[in-house]
Amino acid sequence: MTLASRLSTAANIGQMDTPKELWKMITGNMALIQVQATVVGFLASIAAVVFGWIPDGHFSIDHAVLLCASSVATAFIASLVLGMIMIGVIIGSRKMGINPDNVATPIAASLGDLITLALLSGISWGLYKELESKAYVNPLVCAFFIALLPIWIIIAKKNAATREVLYSGWEPVIIAMAISSVGGLILDRTVSDPNFAGMAVFTPVINGVGGNLVAVQASRISTYLHMSGMPGESPDTAPRRCPSPCTTFFSSDVNSRSARVLFLLVVPGHLVFLYTISSMQGGHTTLTLIFIVFYMTAALLQVLILLYIADWMVHWMWGRDLDPDNFSIPYLTALGDLIGTGLLALSFHVLWLIGDRDSDVGD
How far is residue 105's CA from residue 88's CA, in Å, rounded to a whole number? Predict the structure, then answer.
């Protein structure tokens, strides 16, 4: 998603107009996300091993290496595939006269979950089958992808546009992973209770919609700021310590108008997803009127909070010489996961307390 936001901004301000500039931007950014994917995939596997080992008190080195190999391979391949798709989408959008900020980032977010989960399940299943007969395969996979890191680092360092991100872009990605993990723990604790098992099917929906919408807004604001110069240069875009909600949502500013449009997309978007879940008989929860009211309230509140935070965060980062394309989206999407999961869990608990208790189980 940071790749999509960076390239969308570069396309909008004319940094990808010539074939030479285009090729330079593509190679540097593709190498950069391979470095980030490999490192974060490795760290994510370590975090998963620790989170599994602490409550259970059981540790298996073979399973830990299997998880590491699956995570690193999945992150690398998914980033490669998604990066190529993003480049095609952004180039195609420019040729068709469409603002890539409106299409590239949500496509990256949506396809990111789908492709990553599909690859993770397939790769881990294949490596697990080789665990007993060919135990050396998993360490070999880990070593192979880690050995490629120096190549991607060298390529990314040669590009001025990605060199700075290579050094400074780790903090938001790693902190975002930690924030999302907290949301995952909330989800795990909630769905482990049979009374709230129905939450599982709605969590990716509410988090996906919220993350997509705030990513579009952050990308649009960042592009708007880049039109006026480089981060920290323009006095007109100084950081606002605490923007007024009225300024964020009800002013005549172009970013305020886009915030209103994105907020209004929440209800019809979620109604489509709820109808789809209901028609497929998914989850453990009947879609009663009171459930829809609570669910919509949680979804609207989540997006409202995220759009407000995005308005403050992007301007705050810009005024401190930080490129919002590289820093804001990881934080915002991770906060979307945490806030969405927390509000949904709260809604399910309140529904249970007021007597909306389902005994039916649609699968």
Answer: 13
Mean pLDDT of each 10-residue bin along the chain, 363 residues long:
83 82 88 91 86 73 88 92 90 86 79 83 89 83 92 89 81 84 81 75 86 87 82 58 79 87 90 83 72 92 94 87 84 90 89 68 36
Angle between helices 2-12 and 61-96 (to 10 degrees): 20
Task: Mark residue 225 as left, alpha or beta (left: phi above 0; alpha: psi -120 to 50; beta: remaining).
Answer: alpha
Q: Please report, for residues 2, 180, 231, 240, 335, the alpha-carbon distance to residue 316 in angstroms, rounded to integers and kept in the order given.
A: 18, 22, 10, 6, 17
Which residue do the tokens 């399910």 mark?
A: 348
Are the C-beta atoms of residues 43 and 17 closer than 8 Å to each other? Answer: no
| DSSP reduced 3-state for 298 | helix
Q: What is the DSSP string of 182-218?
A: HHHHHHHHHHTSGGGTTHHHHHHHHHHHHHHHHHHHH
Q: Say what the alpha-carbon torsion angle 145, 147, 151, 156 is, to the nearest 10 degrees.
A: 60
Task: Output the CA angle 285-291-293, nearest 5 degrees.
Answer: 155
Q: How far is CA 351 from the centre of its chain?
A: 29
Q: How many CA atoms lie within 13 A of 95 on its CB side?
A: 7
Q: What are phi and psi of 329, to 5 degrees?
A: -65, -45
Q: What is the pLDDT of residue 232?
A: 67
